[in-house]
Amino acid sequence: MSCINVTHVQILDNPAPFFDPLKFEISFECLTELKEDLEWKVIYVGSAEDEKHDQTLDSIYLGPVKPGVNKFVYEVDPPDHTKISNTDLLGVTVILITCLYKTREFLRIGYYVNNEYSEEFPELRETPPEKPDLSKIIRNILAEKPRLTLFPIPWDQEEKMPTYEENANIVAEEGGIA
Mapping DSSP to helix (H, G, I), strand (E, B) and coil, where does residue 99 land? Predict the structure, then answer.
């Protein structure tokens, strides 16, 4: 059983220009007092073909977490476009919000993201240039359809459970969002 249940994630300022920060208002319920902090991460998938292009946009520790309802706004910088190939800057990708306890991932929320030229530039939508003009690209996180993955962890017990890397390998082998 999980000690943390995410009850709501609201994506703020969406859609937004590509270079704007990403903002998430996260509400969660803590069912028991935790001995250590929670680690939250936001990961931008830079390419579906190769995870070396994935970028951890931010990682924060939140705690101490007491039983009850908690809420915070998590604002992160946009991805570094120089680490994404020109062919992957436009189109659909994924943003992941993960939460770890004692270095073990127990929660992953995935959102599809569509990067496209603003409607103000129909000529660019129809015939995009070889090198994208990022100042005219809008990022739209598809908030209505998150993909939630939960992983069992030992919380404050001492039993052996999969590490973050082991969980990532399990999800990748099963064809889920990694």
Answer: strand
